[in-house]
């Protein structure tokens, strides 16, 4: 039971960290932008993040995933972190949160 709580708490901490990372071209964090598809945390505190980019030719395609990985690894509870990029499904504006759409004047 305590392991489940620890994994859940770590997942919430990871989301808070992800919300500090911004797409350099759009003034919205990558979580609210809908670039994070999933965050997996196992009982050993290994983390895998499945994310996408706004386009395959995104100028931060090489640096953004590394930034995500490094910031997540910086959490004391995280044993290891891997970021996997996918374009299936491709990112669309519909993946943005209501907060992100409001920030970008789309509501």
Record the SSE blueprint.
Layout: H1 2-18, E1 36-41, E2 46-51, H2 63-73, E3 80-85, H3 98-103
Parallel strand pairs: 2-3
Antiparallel strand pairs: 1-2
InterPro entries: Fe-S_Maturation_MIP18, FSCA_dom_sf, MIP18-like
Organism: Gelidibacter sediminis
Protein name: FeS assembly SUF system protein
Task: Walk me through what this model shows.
By secondary structure, the chain is an alpha+beta fold. The protein has one domain: Fe-S cluster assembly (FSCA) (GMP Synthetase, Chain A, domain 3, 2-Layer Sandwich), CATH 3.30.300. Helices cover 32% and strands 17% of the residues. It is built from 3 helices and 3 strands. A 3-stranded mixed beta sheet has the order 1-2-3, covered by helices on one side. Strand 1 and strand 2 form a beta hairpin. It is globular and about 40 Å long. The termini are far apart. The model has no long low-confidence stretch (mean pLDDT 91).
């Amino acid at each position: 039971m305590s392991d489940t709580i620890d994994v859940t708490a770590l997942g919430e901490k990871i989301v808070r960290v992800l919300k500090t990372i911004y797409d350099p071209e759009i003034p919205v964090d990558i979580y609210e932008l809908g670039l994070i598809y999933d965050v997996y945390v196992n009982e050993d505190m290994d983390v895998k993040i499945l994310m996408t980019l706004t386009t395959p030719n995104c100028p931060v395609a090489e640096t953004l995933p590394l930034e995500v990985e490094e910031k997540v690894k910086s959490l004391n509870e995280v044993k290891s972190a891997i970021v996997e990029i996918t374009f299936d499904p491709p990112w669309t504006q519909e993946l943005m949160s209501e907060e992100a759409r409001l920030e970008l004047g789309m509501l």
